[in-house]
């Protein structure tokens, strides 16, 4: 649960209420489902398993009939989804994503889902927002960029962009999918549904004609485009990868594998663009500074230089008519990795900063040799910089799921409205029954396949824990840690016992409380989040800060077996995950924001300060908060607070065990669940976390160096079906994952389980160990010979600890690996490179194959170094 | 005023009607319902709704009955939508019965308690009725609040350890017309009930005054422009641009040809036509849009007032070019 700056602090209740109706809530409502009852085909199809529909479509769907249906007016697909990139180039605007290449992007199951449930998953770049300004104006569109100062929306319908200063924004909320529900009802028969899915699932590569490939030598084709002056440049490289460049807008368009396209008898070229991935670069991407001055573009032509194409163009600033000349080259290292290089001739005496503008991208990472001040997708050059490089690392398509693992959905109960089943926490009892807390304050129990409601009427329960007696259940409500007792043993709680309530709660929506977890001594721990606004902020900041009403917000609190509540550790912002490993060690995750450079996982010991200074006023030296609050002090707030000593808290701050690298791994993580020693593959004892934004599971392998926790974080499964948040291992070794996703992102509240089938061995980096000379990477399967060398990239960076919202990676450096040795059994790769405390190391192994032939899909690890070895 | 009239008045003021937002109301049927939540001014509220339309708020910090209302229970929309966590609105006129302080005193009225410890509540399995459990200055107390008729509130206190000191209960009396207490209890003055030492049970019966206030439910937004942007704009432009459905440009002035029951007819839009188009989009379809995507059933999303607001917004559209 992350507070993003895009939603401002002033909420108009009416707007919020409205947005509630809109914000996807209605999608899962029984009322809406009931309304569908009359609409026969959609209802009939929704009643069946998506997988079954998809497989029927593949077996019995007729793609050519499906194409006819697709073009049929009444269905209207073509009204919103343009047929192809060409159609887009001809100026057709697309309200929804292009459809012809969709079979390359989505599985048949996903296609079935997107037709039957349009709002479940909205394609990246098509999620619309509605922004209400103070002046009462309403803007609707897709966010193309955001900064602390402004939000830029593009209307999918008109293509117009609107920049809205944040100070003017009263409210901003996601809008539902523009795609109508019940589209299947406009089909004549079930067979038509299968035909249509079959058509959409067909990869749309072959168009007839002679395929154009590079055959050892670069091929450049000029492909005329309607309505523009210069033909598109289409380049096939000897390594089998192709790309296109639009000279009219001076930007790279897309990259793909396979033939460049097909030439017919008359020599007309049809590009293989349906296989293409966008470069996410804007048309005419150059600006001076943040766009104060625009350029006129003049195309100077292209030339082939060895295996590369160099394009040249001239930029003339519209104010002073000064001239820059740019030579641009693309190096395509692999389908997933490209580097754009610019050689820039500046006009005499100019010292302006040029910027290069990307679109909202789905890259795994973008890095440059510029100023490292990426903001709003603008890459900043250094003043007068002549050689500029942009390194692009893409994500693979489709789901990454390690070998031997399977993801399944578990059918949840359907609470009576207005309550929802949004699982926020899991706990298993000794009899195998599962207790689940929900965001709307109920506790459900799953026993022998039957769901029953154990407790209700609670206040935003964000965690649950079966008590030591195996019968009763602890849960964390916003204002109270509560023990739910089933004294008559009828499977429903009848005493709701208050265990701890003497921490401040002022009613701000962001004052969440998470937990509890319990150690073997019987101590319980829970964590509290800061308020979003309304109280004391630690320091002025441009991007706004979380606020403390004091009274132990932003703390981990401890309740001993006698029921005494005491403050345990401070410095948390929005600590949405708390967990305990098998050795009774406590871990907390926090969410990126002010004073939190990136989401992290921290090892928490008594007295620790984890970094958010607004929590410090509760410490005894300030005399503002009693160690134990009572009925008189629990609600009292403090008018003024003294300044904090920044040098002191900087020095005191305990760094996280690992950074969960924002952007790459986690933007809003939930709790760590520690895997049992066996039953979940070769990862016993490691932490698994779900992330709401990435819809992903990540894996953390910790080690202690000089007594301090640090280690490596790896991607594990991505994406899951929904906005995953809570995790827990069941006694049989399955990982249970609950999805919420209301308010920050759109997601269906569901439960998924991840299970391991012990007949196959995954191929993953099992762990990364720090050595005196670098890192040892342990693999779960022996690696084939060729590892390391050019395919591998190691980057070093660090983060800022500051009052602003998050931190970019600082001083990103590509390190050269001095030596890479594979152990005799091919299970350990030793890297020799310089390692410094306080840095994060991205170990990107590139293409790695196991002796078994398996490919390392999760080929990147981020190792946080707190301590080094002598 | 006789009691019957009073009862009717109270029920009317309670405002049972719930046209808007009923999908988010917590509905009380045959069992009492407890819901912890934020209410305006009381972050740690415990709301209780009883069958028959009696509801109250309990404050677990000072262990006091804060207020009661008659009518529907709670609108849960602020918690169940968006980011949640916003104050819930009681669906009735709140009548304060609690003073700002801890209502129960041990020994003497002016003895401010050293400690007030909320211990939770017990749910009676058959009825769902909660009994609040707490201790004031170490004296354990159990409290139930019930109602035996319109405007009637009964506070029951039980003392598992009867003790040797008298206990006092303080109330806010502005809404109270009449106060009766069980045997052996005394009312030294209005708003103060004295329970003698050794007594293990006490009952305070209140009859409330009728209230002049009437309850108005907080509505979801009825900003027509906002509703248009969220629900209509992706298919219908205001400027004549063509999207999935016809534009609203010149909606009220330009004649348009529609197909109704298979027959073409020329009409100029009026409010009835616009309303029909929203409520029954398939009834009359603008020529050229017969094969377009069917319009969504907006009544699943918008309530009547919101639809009125959209119609109102469309009504006030200026003709294009002005």
Oligomer state of the chains in this structure: heterodimer
Number of strands of chain A: 54
Structural class of chain A: mainly beta
Rg of chain B? 28 Å
Instruction: Give the mean pLDDT of chain B.
Output: 86
Largest sheet of chain B: 6 strands, antiparallel
Features:
heterodimer, A: 870 residues, mainly beta, 8-stranded antiparallel sheet, 6-stranded antiparallel sheet, 54 strands, 10% helix, 35% strand, globular, B: 322 residues, alpha+beta, 5-stranded antiparallel sheet, 34% strand, elongated, disordered N terminus
Can you walk through the features of this model?
Chain A has 870 residues and is mainly β. Chain A has eleven helices and 54 strands. In chain A, the strands form twelve sheets. In chain A, strands 40-41-42-43-54-53-49-50 form an eight-stranded antiparallel sheet, with no helix packed on it. Chain A has a six-stranded antiparallel sheet with strand order 15-16-17-18-22-20, with no helix packed on it. In chain A, strand 8 and strand 9 (241-246) form a beta hairpin. In chain A, helix 5 crosses helix 10 (190-201). Chain A is globular. In chain B, 14% of the residues lie in helices and 34% in strands. Chain B has five helices and 21 strands. Chain B has helices spanning 3-14, 77-80, 224-231, 271-279, 304-315; strands at 25-26, 33-39, 42-50, 54-59, 64-70, 74-75, 89-90, 95-96, 104-106, 116-123, 130-136, 139-146, 152-158, 167-170, 176-181, 186-189, 192-195, 201-208, 256-260, 263-267, 284-286. In chain B, the strands form five sheets. In chain B, strands 10-11-12-13-18-15 form a six-stranded antiparallel sheet, with no helix packed on it. The longest helix of chain B has 12 residues, at 3-14. Classes of the chains: A mainly beta (870), B alpha+beta (322). At the A-B interface, helix 1, helix 2, strand 1, strand 2 and strand 30 of A face strand 1, strand 2, helix 2, strand 10 and helix 3 of B. Strand 31 of chain A pairs antiparallel with strand 10 (116-123) of chain B.
């Amino acid at each position: 649960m992350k507070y993003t700056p895009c939603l401002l602090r002033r909420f108009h209740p009416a707007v919020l209420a409205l947005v509630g109706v809109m914000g996807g809530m209605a999608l899962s409502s029984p009322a809406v489902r009931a309304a569908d009852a009359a609409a026969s085909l959609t209802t009939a199809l929704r009643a069946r398993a998506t997988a079954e529909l998809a497989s029927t479509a593949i077996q019995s769907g007729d793609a050519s009939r499906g194409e006819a249906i697709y073009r049929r007016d009444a269905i209207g697909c073509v009204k919103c989804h343009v047929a192809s990139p060409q159609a887009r180039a001809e100026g057709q605007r697309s309200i929804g994503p292009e459809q012809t290449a969709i079979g390359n992007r989505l599985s048949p199951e996903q296609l079935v889902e997107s037709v039957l449930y349009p709002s479940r998953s909205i394609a990246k770049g098509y999620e619309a927002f509605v922004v209400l300004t103070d002046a009462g104006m309403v803007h609707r569109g897709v966010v193309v960029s955001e900064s602390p100062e402004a939000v830029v929306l593009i209307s999918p319908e008109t293509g117009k962009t609107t920049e809205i200063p944040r100070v003017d924004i009263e409210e901003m909320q996601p809008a539902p999918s523009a795609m109508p529900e019940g589209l299947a009802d406009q089909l004549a028969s079930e067979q038509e549904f299968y035909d249509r899915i079959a058509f959409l699932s067909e990869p749309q590569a072959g168009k007839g004609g002679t395929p154009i490939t590079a055959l050892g030598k670069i091929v450049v084709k000029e492909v005329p485009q309607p309505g523009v002056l210069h033909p598109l440049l289409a380049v096939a490289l000897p390594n089998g990868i192709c790309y296109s460049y639009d000279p009219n807008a001076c930007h790279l368009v897309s990259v793909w594998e396979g033939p460049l396209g097909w030439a017919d008898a008359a020599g007309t070229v049809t590009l293989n663009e349906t296989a293409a991935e966008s470069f996410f670069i804007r048309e005419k991407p150059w600006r001076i500074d943040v766009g104060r001055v625009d350029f006129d573009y003049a195309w100077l032509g292209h030339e082939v230089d060895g295996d590369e194409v160099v394009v040249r163009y001239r930029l003339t600033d519209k104010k002073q008519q000064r001239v820059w000349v740019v030579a641009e080259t693309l190096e395509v290292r692999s389908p997933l990795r490209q580097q754009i290089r610019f050689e820039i001739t500046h006009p005499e005496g100019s010292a302006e900063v040029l910027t290069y503008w990307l679109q909202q991208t789905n890259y795994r990472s973008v890095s440059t040799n510029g100023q490292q001040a990426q903001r709003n997708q603008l890459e900043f050059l250094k003043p007068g910089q002549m050689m500029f490089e942009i390194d692009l690392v893409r994500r693979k398509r489709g789901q990454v799921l390690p070998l031997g693992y399977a993801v399944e959905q578990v059918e949840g109960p359907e609470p009576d409205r207005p309550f929802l089943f949004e699982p926020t926490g899991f706990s298993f009892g000794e009899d195998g029954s599962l207790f689940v807390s929900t965001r709307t304050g109920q506790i459900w129990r799953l026993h022998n396949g039957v769901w029953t409601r154990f407790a209700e009427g609670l206040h935003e329960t964000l965690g649950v824990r079966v008590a030591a007696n195996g019968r009763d259940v602890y849960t964390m409500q916003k204002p109270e840690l509560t023990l739910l007792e089933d004294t008559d043993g009828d499977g429903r709680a009848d005493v709701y016992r208050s265990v701890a309530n003497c921490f401040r709660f002022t009613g701000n929506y962001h004052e969440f409380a998470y937990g509890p977890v319990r150690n073997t001594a019987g101590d319980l721990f829970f964590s509290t989040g800061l308020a979003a606004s309304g109280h004391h902020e630690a320091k002025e900041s441009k991007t706004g800060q979380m606020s403390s009403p004091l009274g132990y917000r932003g703390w981990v609190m401890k309740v001993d077996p006698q029921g005494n509540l005491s403050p345990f550790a401070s410095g948390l912002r929005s600590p949405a995950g708390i967990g305990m490993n098998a050795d009774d060690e406590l871990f907390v995750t926090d969410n990126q924001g002010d004073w939190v450079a990136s989401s992290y996982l921290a090892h928490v010991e008594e007295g620790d300060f984890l970094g958010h200074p607004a929590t410090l006023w509760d410490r005894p030296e300030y005399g503002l908060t009693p160690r134990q609050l009572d009925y008189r002090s629990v609600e009292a707030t403090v008018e003024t607070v003294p300044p904090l000593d920044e040098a002191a808290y900087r020095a005191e701050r305990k760094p996280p065990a690992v950074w969960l690298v924002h952007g790459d791994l986690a933007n809003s993580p939930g709790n760590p669940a520690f895997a049992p020693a066996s039953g979940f593959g070769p990862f016993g004892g490691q932490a698994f976390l779900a992330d709401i934004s990435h819809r992903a599971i990540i894996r953390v392998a910790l080690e202690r160096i000089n007594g301090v926790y640090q280690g490596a974080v790896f991607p594990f499964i991505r994406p899951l079906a929904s906005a995953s948040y809570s995790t827990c291992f069941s006694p049989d070794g399955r990982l249970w994952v609950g999805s919420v996703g209301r308010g920050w992102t759109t997601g269906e509240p569901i439960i998924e389980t991840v299970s391991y089938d012990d007949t196959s061995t995954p191929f993953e980096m099992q762990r990364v160990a720090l050595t005196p000379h670098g890192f040892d990477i342990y693999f779960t399967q022996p690696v084939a010979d060729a590892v390391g060398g050019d395919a591998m990239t190691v980057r070093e960076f660090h983060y800022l600890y500051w009052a602003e919202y998050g931190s970019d990676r600082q001083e990103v450096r590509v390190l050269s690996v001095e030596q890479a040795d594979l152990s005799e059994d091919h299970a350990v790769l030793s890297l020799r490179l310089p390692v410094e405390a306080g840095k994060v190391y991205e170990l990107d192994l590139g293409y790695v194959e196991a002796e078994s032939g398996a490919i390392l899909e999760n080929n990147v690890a981020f190792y946080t170094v707190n301590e080094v070895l002598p | 005023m006789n009691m019957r009239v009073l009862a009717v008045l109270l029920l009317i003021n309670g405002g049972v009607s719930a046209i808007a937002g009923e999908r988010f109301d917590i509905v009380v049927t045959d069992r009492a319902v407890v819901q912890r939540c934020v209410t305006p001014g009381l972050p740690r509220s415990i709301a209780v709704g009883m069958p028959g339309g009696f509801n109250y708020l309990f404050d677990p910090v000072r262990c006091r009955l804060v207020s009661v209302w008659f009518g529907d229970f709670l609108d849960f929309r602020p918690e169940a939508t968006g980011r949640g966590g916003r104050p819930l609105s009681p669906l009735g006129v709140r009548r304060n019965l609690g003073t700002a302080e801890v209502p129960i005193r041990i020994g003497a009225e002016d003895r401010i308690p050293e400690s007030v410890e909320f211990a939770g509540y017990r749910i009676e399995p058959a009825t769902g009725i909660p009994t609040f459990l707490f201790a004031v200055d170490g004296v354990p107390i159990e409290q139930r609040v019930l109602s035996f008729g319109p405007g009637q509130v009964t506070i029951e206190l039980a003392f598992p350890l009867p003790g040797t000191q008298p206990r006092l209960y303080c109330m806010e009396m502005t809404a109270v017309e009449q106060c009766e207490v069980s045997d052996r209890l005394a009312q030294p003055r209005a708003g103060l009930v004295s329970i003698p030492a050794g007594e293990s049970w006490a009952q305070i019966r209140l009859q409330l005054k009728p209230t002049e206030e009437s309850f108005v439910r907080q509505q979801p937004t009825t900003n027509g422009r906002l509703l248009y942007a969220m629900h209509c704009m992706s298919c219908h432009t205001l400027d004549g641009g063509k999207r999935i459905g016809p534009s609203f440009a010149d909606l009220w002035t330009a004649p348009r040809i529609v197909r109704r029951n298979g027959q073409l007819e020329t009409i100029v839009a009026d409010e009835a036509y616009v309303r029909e188009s929203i409520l029954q989009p398939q009834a009359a379809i603008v020529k050229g849009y017969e094969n377009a995507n069917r319009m969504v059933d907006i009544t699943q999303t918008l309530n009547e007032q919101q639809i009125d607001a959209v119609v109102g917004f469309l009504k006030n559209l200026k003709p294009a070019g002005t």
